[in-house]
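Quarterly update from the structural biology core.
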Amino acid sequence: MSDALSADTIPAIAPTFRFQWEEAQDCFVILYPEGMVKLSPSAGEILKRCDGKRTVDEIIEQLRSAFPGADLAGDVMKFMEVAYGNGWLKSV
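Predicted structure, tokenized:
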């Protein structure tokens, strides 16, 4: 894990970005003044839980419940580290 991200970190979408379902793209996207990033289904599932109320551990547990049998903790952490690096997420 990076220094910025731990099990008790409470992530939220950064104010300069907007996370939403884009019907025309048939996927979740991150919007920002310069453009748009189309997200994979798994990235969308992670980011829609980053509401500034749940810790990283709580988000991983919710994903485990939604997708039983999937070993996803490592992948979730890697994605969140990338999202923090891109500025999409901030800590509350």
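The chain has three helices and five strands.
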